[in-house]
Structure to design on (626 residues):
């Protein structure tokens, strides 16, 4: 196993202050502490070359888990092993084989071309000349940035800068890559490019990638496996397809009507979620979708009908709101 | 993969894919180490050089204080016929001009960057993720600034020595004393660097960093010799300043360069500097180990 996490817990103590000046005074004498369970008994394993998506709302514990795995945080309890190392010891041999990319933090020199930062990393990671050249050429081609290497970083756009950050983070060919919100703040086109890059990098190098995102699209397109986390606990760990089958309790019937039908007539079929004549969208229980479709075709002036899986974001929202009941 | 593979140099491409690591021989590692450091230094130098105009503005600011004080002394000497012992006007002028160089070359200013950027904004995480020592990286970041500012300082010295001092400044000329001065300078820079590293990482505990910084600034101005040569202070303050570390960062290098230290005094200065270096080294190490534990416990 490349990554093994067993009963990982990370708790913080934070103190609470009552509002206002009086609150400040009281907190001087008597501080109320509260334990925040950022990660609460999380276990999973990741094989070499896997690309796993970590999803969950803000504050769910995604980044905390990633930091525990990369060695930036030491766990309150539990066992973590990455490439056979204990991450928080941060041994050089470990650090040389991993990379942590945080979408909101940059390491590039602002006033110099990005190339100079790459050269610095070459020295820091002690990359031989030949390997450096080969890796750089490959990354530059994959990300299509050959004409930007000599441009001052401050003059690059956010997307271009993000690409350069990725090169800086990958120049030592890490075997394990932690990506924290790699597409944050990027426009749709750039998000797609970034996704394509991550996918092809994973295929090319067989590197293990763990990425967090709150854009469903990132995970849908990239990860075969997702880990859904909320309030520090894992709610689901498995294939994205299975998530749909397992948790979507309904299917969606999309209908195009020939003539207008009053909305309440649909009640006997299922729940009308959207009606904009001639289009109607009806939710029906998963097991009854065939019957419902047949009923629709029989009793309503249907011009066209589609049975669809519900939107993955809806399913996950349901998972989050009904959590614990899984 | 065992944890004993700590001293690895490179991962071979194939080895990496199979999870096998090859080890370069140690001899070549130590052979390339100075070259590696030189490259890292030069890359940082480029970055600072890119900011040379900003660096020059900072330098001009540091110039202000000694030159104003020098003007004051000039007036004082004109109205009074009694010189201050062996501190003639020329010696005083020489002191302040060297103070400009010492202030720009020896006074490390890394603490604010460490406290505000690395610790408060959390950029320390990035340094922790690299297989390279934090303090060494900070050293390579700071050294170019000091070299460039020191260069400005030398320019000012050359310029002003023509206008302000008619008979020129008397500098150290005995070879043994020159060597001693160089050692004192290197040690002064090292103490100053370690001291500012300590001040910087104290932000891991202190949220009100500005207060500490101001306080140290004031103490430094008085006891490092920025106001006037410490020898001219009343005995009590003079003794106190010789006990505190600040004089060994600025004052002693200056008077050593002015040739005002006997061989015995030079050796004594070097001895005290080494002691301070060790004290700061130990303090830094202890603070770093605890601080990093705290930092990684809370996260950023």
């Amino acid at each position: 196993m490349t990554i093994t996490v067993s009963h990982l817990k990370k708790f913080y103590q934070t103190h609470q202050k009552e509002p206002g000046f009086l609150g400040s005074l009281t907190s001087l004498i008597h501080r109320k502490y509260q334990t925040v369970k950022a990660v609460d008994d999380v276990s999973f394993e990741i094989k070499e070359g896997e690309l796993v998506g970590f999803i969950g709302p803000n504050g769910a514990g995604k980044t905390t888990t990633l930091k525990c795995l990369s060695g930036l945080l030491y766990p309150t309890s539990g066992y973590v092993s990455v490439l056979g190392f204990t991450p928080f010891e941060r041994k050089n041999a470990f650090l040389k084989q991993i990379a942590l990319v945080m979408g909101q933090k940059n390491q590039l020199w602002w006033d110099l071309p990005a190339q100079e930062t790459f050269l610095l990393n070459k020295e820091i990671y002690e990359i031989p000349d030949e390997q450096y050249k080969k890796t750089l050429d490959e990354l530059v081609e994959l990300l299509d940035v050959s004409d930007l290497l000599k441009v001052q970083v401050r003059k690059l756009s956010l997307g271009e800068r993000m690409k350069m950050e990725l090169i800086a983070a990958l120049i030592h060919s890490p075997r394990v890559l932690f990506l924290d919100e790699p597409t944050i703040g990027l426009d749709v086109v750039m998000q797609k490019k970034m996704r394509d890059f991550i996918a092809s990098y994973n295929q090319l190098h067989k590197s293990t990638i763990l990425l967090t995102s709150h854009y469903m699209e990132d995970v849908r397109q990239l990860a075969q496996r997702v880990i859904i986390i909320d309030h520090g606990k894992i709610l689901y760990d498995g294939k994205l397809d299975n998530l749909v089958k397992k948790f979507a309790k309904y299917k969606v019937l999309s209908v195009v009507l020939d003539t207008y039908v009053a909305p309440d007539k649909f009640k006997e079929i299922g729940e009308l979620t959207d009606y904009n004549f001639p289009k109607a969208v009806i939710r029906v229980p998963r097991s009854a979708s065939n019957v419902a479709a047949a009923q629709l075709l029989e009793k309503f002036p249907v011009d066209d009908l589609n049975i669809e899986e519900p939107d993955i974001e809806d399913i996950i929202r349901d998972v989050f709101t009904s959590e614990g009941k899984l | 993969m065992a944890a004993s593979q700590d001293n690895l140099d490179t991962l071979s491409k194939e080895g990496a894919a199979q999870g096998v690591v090859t080890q370069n021989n140690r001899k070549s590692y130590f052979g390339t180490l100075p070259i590696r450091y030189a490259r890292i230094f030069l890359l940082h130098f480029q970055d600072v050089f890119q900011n040379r105009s900003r660096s020059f503005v900072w330098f001009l600011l540091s110039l202000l204080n000694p030159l104003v004080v020098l003007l004051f002394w000039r007036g004082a000497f004109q109205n009074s016929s009694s010189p201050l012992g062996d501190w003639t006007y020329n010696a005083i002028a020489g002191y302040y001009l060297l103070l400009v160089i010492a202030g720009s070359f020896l006074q490390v200013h890394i603490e604010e960057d460490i406290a505000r950027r690395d610790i408060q904004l959390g950029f320390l995480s990035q340094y922790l993720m690299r297989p390279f020592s934090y303090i060494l990286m900070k050293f390579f970041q700071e050294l170019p600034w000091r070299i460039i500012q020191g260069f400005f300082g030398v320019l000012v010295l050359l310029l002003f020595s023509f206008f302000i001092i008619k008979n020129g400044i008397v500098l150290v000329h005995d070879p043994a004393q020159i060597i001693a001065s160089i050692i004192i300078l290197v040690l002064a820079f090292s103490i100053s660097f370690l001291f500012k590293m300590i001040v910087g990482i104290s932000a891991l505990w202190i949220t009100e960093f500005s207060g500490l910084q101001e306080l140290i600034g004031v103490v430094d101005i008085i006891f490092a010799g920025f106001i006037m040569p410490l020898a001219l202070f009343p005995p009590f303050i003079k003794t106190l300043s010789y006990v505190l570390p600040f004089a060994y960062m600025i004052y002693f290098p200056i008077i050593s360069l002015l040739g005002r230290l006997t061989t015995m005094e030079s050796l004594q200065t070097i001895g005290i500097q080494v002691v301070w270096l060790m004290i700061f080294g130990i303090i830094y190490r202890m603070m770093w180990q605890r601080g990093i534990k705290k930092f990684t416990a809370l996260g950023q």
Chain B touches chain A through 38 residues (CB under 8 Å). Confidence is low (pLDDT under 50) at residues 1-27 of chain B. The CA atoms of residues 203 and 209 of chain B lie 6 Å apart. Chain B has two domains: 1-50, 51-297.
